[in-house]
Design brief:
This protein is 31% helix and 11% strand. The protein is built from 14 helices and 9 strands.
């Protein structure tokens, strides 16, 4: 017997809800990386050419795609002799300088007026260190020290990026499935490493399952991790799947095979979208979102669906109400990729033909879609981007006349 879906009830219910401290021994860098100290004096076109032709970053070098992309943007620069020195360790001051060039985050805390005891007022990276601290990318050591010349261990760089990007710690129990040296990960960093792993921030060369967390971060590794962090923010595109460097991105290459990273697979692997992913499967739309197209998904979180009456969700999943479910889900998909920086005030046409209305409050750093707020922007996938929203959207064309038996 056909189960009726009360459309007015559906509409009303949908509309109603809308200082990491460590004890590593300080190691002094005897020769500072002048590439990060001095501003580039070449033009942009000259710098791009240099990025492509570093004498020590030949074609086939594992990190060349990451190094070239960041060099073109002057985030990491080469040396006056035309080299990049990809295997040179990075100091904490140098990593702060890279962070300053890569990101444009708002301060969330304030450094004491006197600053760090071991960072003089005329130190070359003083402004970068202050910014990295105030945006919560990096923290100091007990006694108000920063140790700017200390080589930064890889795990400390991962923690910095995780904290600065505000990634949510994930289940640490799964780390053993990614890393053969999981026991080498310091306890203080386990949550952050798990969150960075889930976000595809971590790049391991030459063995993707070997983290080597306590080894000093190299310039090549810094470029790779910063690139992936910018991909996470939607500021850079993911490397194409046929680029060999993707084999070293943890989460995209496990067990020697390329993991799925389309918008549906990314949503399905995210614990915030279990209901949304299930409904995509039920409706048959999952396959469309796994194609090589370009999509922006406004994905309601599980909390958004939990705000709906249980009966509404149950009825939407019945076979006879599949067309209504499809209309609702298609209304959450824009058929082109739009990162948070590319979303502007106005209407954007969805796969359901009807547009959604986007409002951007730059002062509050908030994006709204119809009556929903974006609570986590720029979850990057190979064929688009996902923005998590806190309310299920209802299309305006879902009328009684179109579904007379409901």
């Amino acid at each position: 017997m056909r189960s009726p879906l009360n459309l007015s009830f559906l509409k009303s219910t949908l509309l109603a809800f809308g200082v990491v401290t460590t004890s590593f021994v300080s190691t002094v860098i005897t020769q500072p990386a002048t590439a990060q100290i001095t501003a580039p004096t070449t033009s942009r076109s000259q710098n791009i050419a240099t990025a492509r032709y570093y004498s020590d970053v030949r074609a086939g070098y594992w990190a060349r795609p990451f190094i070239s992309a960041l060099s073109e943007r002057n985030i990491i620069t080469g040396f006056p002799d035309g080299t990049f020195k990809p295997e040179q360790p990075v100091s904490r001051a140098e990593f702060a300088a890279m962070i300053q060039k890569a990101f444009n985050q708002n301060p969330v805390r304030q450094l004491n007026t006197g600053g760090f005891r071991d960072v003089p007022a005329d130190y070359w990276a003083i402004s970068a260190i202050q910014e990295a601290y105030e945006t919560r990318f990096m923290s100091g050591y007990p006694g108000n020290f920063f140790f700017p010349n200390q080589q930064i261990p890889k795990v400390q760089a991962i923690v910095a990026l995780t904290n600065g990007l505000g990634l949510t710690p994930d289940d640490t129990a799964s780390l053993a499935s990614y890393y053969t040296d999981v026991n080498a990960i310091p306890n203080y960093a386990a949550d952050e490493v798990a969150a960075a792993t889930r976000a595809n921030l971590i790049v391991n060369y030459p063995e993707v399952r070997q983290l080597n967390p306590l080894k000093p971060l190299t310039r090549a590794e810094a470029a790779a991790h910063l690139y992936q962090a910018l991909v996470r923010q939607g500021k850079l595109q993911p490397l194409a799947s046929n680029v060999s460097a993707t084999n070293y991105i943890v989460g995209r290459a496990i067990g020697g095979t390329q993991a799925e990273n389309d918008v549906f697979s990314i949503a399905a692997s995210n614990s915030s979208f279990t209901t949304f992913s299930s409904l995509l499967k039920t409706s048959g739309l999952a396959g469309i979102l796994q194609t090589p197209g370009s999509f922006t998904i406004f994905a309601p979180t599980d909390q958004a669906f939990a705000a709906l009456p249980v009966e509404t969700l149950r009825q939407l999943q019945l076979p006879e109400n599949r067309e209504t479910l499809i209309r609702i889900l298609r209304y959450h998909v824009v058929p082109r990729q739009l990162t948070a920086n590319e979303l502007s005030e106005g209407e954007f046409k969805t796969l359901g033909d009807n547009p959604v209305n986007v409002q951007v409050n730059t002062g509050a750093n908030q994006i709204s879609v119809n009556n929903a707020q974006v609570v986590q922007p720029n979850i990057q996938a190979s064929n688009g981007v996902i923005h998590a929203i806190n309310t299920v959207l209802i299309p305006p064309n879902l009328t009684q006349s179109q579904q007379p038996n409901f």
